[in-house]
Design a protein that fits this description.
The chain has 406 residues and is an alpha+beta fold. It folds into three domains: 105 residues, Immunoglobulins (Immunoglobulin-like), CATH 2.60.40; 149 residues, Collagenase ColT, N-terminal domain (Glutaredoxin, 3-Layer(aba) Sandwich), CATH 3.40.30.160; 115 residues, no CATH class. The termini are far apart. The relative contact order is 0.09.
Length: 406
């Protein structure tokens, strides 16, 4: 009887020990209750987290990285402000106005680091969050490394854009040896207004945006503006390819080469650009290659001439020296060489030498036009048309203006 009583007392003591509240809390320790995130495109990411511990939680940090090409892994860390307690429920928003915005289709990785008063620490598994423009129901078409996303227009419309993209990549490879190293995403908005609604700091004339480090491009192309859209895609894909090939932490491409290759990818120089180039040649008013290496003028006429000359410079190098030397030039730029150094290694001349050779190339004498064959009345009509074209061209350049991603 005494043995049974002792055994029963021992069992009761063990049960009380196991069910002790203090020991239950100790076993629980620091615990993550929930972690979530929402996207409010194009304005922000919102991150939420709940955790508990048997002692006060003293530290909460949110860490995130943006998925883009860079020269070093950059992790941003945010220390969340809260009152230390045993249960925390925190939220933090990454506002796009703080970082200048992100393109549709980009993504980030994020994780939490939580610490309590006993020194216990939790680091959550990194989660990926896509920054999608959910305002529209997107369709997609993929060919090779190019994916086009669109929400307005028939599939035949997008297939024509895809064909133009593939043709542009083929032509760029034939002319320069450059190729698309990483996948490219093209978001086709129905018009410029829809596109601008996807941006944080849009300009009223913005028609397209290229984010070269993300491999993403967004353009406003209406189904009835297919011809312009094809040239725009060729232009921007050339930028993506060339930037992928030459990206380095030391130097960028001279503007005339960057824009000239993109213009050359579109096809023959359009007549209005050619008119500005011919006029500058006739008046001996060309811009030097050194000046064209810097960002172009904001004035319409000078900007037009800069683009036209850039096209002509690239045409001269490819026509006169071929694909192999253009590819060599790009690979030298990838090493971070200066402009003069890169040209010297590839071609044997610097920017001044290129300027002199190119001017000789474009000023080959042509047969003079018989002025008496053009009646005065026709000259007046042409002058009036030219004025209208110049007005239209100024507007067209505004709609063509592209902003490069960082």
């Amino acid at each position: 009887m005494i043995k049974k009583a002792s055994l029963l007392a021992l069992v009761i003591c063990l049960l009380l020990t196991v069910l002790s509240p203090s020991l239950i809390q100790a076993r629980t320790g620091l615990t993550l209750l929930s972690s979530s995130a929402q996207v409010e495109f194009p304005s922000r990411f919102i991150f939420n987290m709940s955790a508990e511990s048997d002692v006060n939680i003293t530290g909460v940090r949110l860490c995130y990285t943006v998925d883009r090409v860079s020269f070093a892994q950059v992790t941003s860390e945010v220390c969340i402000e809260f009152v230390p307690t045993t249960t925390v429920d925190v939220s933090w928003a990454l506002e796009m106005v703080r970082i200048g915005g992100l393109p549709p289709g980009s993504s980030i990785k994020y994780w939490w680091i939580i610490e309590d008063g006993k020194g216990e620490k939790i680091k959550t598994t990194p989660a990926q969050l896509q920054f999608d423009d959910t305002r529209y129901s997107w369709h997609s078409l993929t060919e090779g490394k190019v994916t086009i996303y669109w929400y307005e227009g028939e599939e035949s419309f997008v297939r024509e854009l895809m064909a133009a993209a593939q043709q542009a990549l083929t032509k760029l490879g034939q002319n320069t040896g450059a190729y698309l190293e990483r996948p490219a995403k093209l978001y086709i908005y129905a018009d410029a207004q829809d596109l601008q609604g996807a941006m944080i700091y849009p300009q009223e004339w913005t028609g397209g945006v290229a984010f070269t480090r993300y491999g993403i491009m967004a353009i406003g192309i209406a189904p009835d503006n297919l011809s312009w859209g094809k040239r725009a895609i060729a232009h921007e894909l050339a930028h993506l390819v060339i930037h992928q090939m030459t990206l380095n932490p030391y130097n960028s491409l001279p503007t005339w080469l960057d824009e000239g290759l993109a213009m050359y990818a579109e096809g023959p120089l359009v007549p209005l650009y050619k008119a500005y180039l011919d006029k500058a040649i006739a008046e001996d008013n060309l811009i030097s290659v050194r000046s064209l290496s810097s960002p172009f003028s904001a004035y319409t006429e000078e900007s037009l001439l800069s683009y036209a000359q850039s096209y002509s410079l690239v045409e001269f190098l490819i026509t006169s020296y071929g694909q192999d030397m253009m590819l060599e030039l790009l690979l030298i730029f990838k090493q971070g060489s200066s402009y003069d150094e890169a040209l010297g290694k590839a071609y044997g001349f610097d920017m001044d030498g290129l300027d002199a050779l190119w001017r000789d190339y474009i000023t080959v004498p042509t047969q003079p036009v018989e002025k008496e064959l053009m009646p005065p009345a026709l000259i007046g009509v042409i002058s009036a048309l030219a004025a209208v074209l110049l007005l239209w061209l100024g507007l067209a350049i505004e709609s063509w203006a592209w902003r490069r991603g960082w």
